[in-house]
Design a protein that fits this description.
Layout (H helix, E strand, L loop, with lengths): L10 E4 L9 E6 L3 E6 L5 E5 H7 E6 L1 H4 L3
Antiparallel strand pairs: 1-2, 1-5, 2-3, 3-4
């Protein structure tokens, strides 16, 4: 399986929606674990990298397009 490309600050789409109704998450920490923050309600979740990569569909907005915030 090919590794998925993502960077710090990217907004990614996950396979399952969050209970608040949105599928978009912002990557706010990278390492062995990935911390993502829901763009709808602001809830953050820490996932192991392997679980995150298997549950991520695609990058919606790259960090370069998003601006540095």
């Amino acid at each position: 399986m090919q590794r998925k490309e993502f960077q710090l600050g990217d907004i990614v789409e996950m396979k399952k929606p969050h209970p608040c109704g949105t599928n978009a998450w912002k990557v706010i920490r990278m390492g062995m674990d990935i911390r993502i923050k829901c763009t709808g309600c602001g809830h953050s979740v820490l996932l192991p990298r392997t679980r995150f990569e298997s549950r991520m569909k695609k990058v919606l907005v790259a960090a370069a397009e998003n601006g540095s915030d």
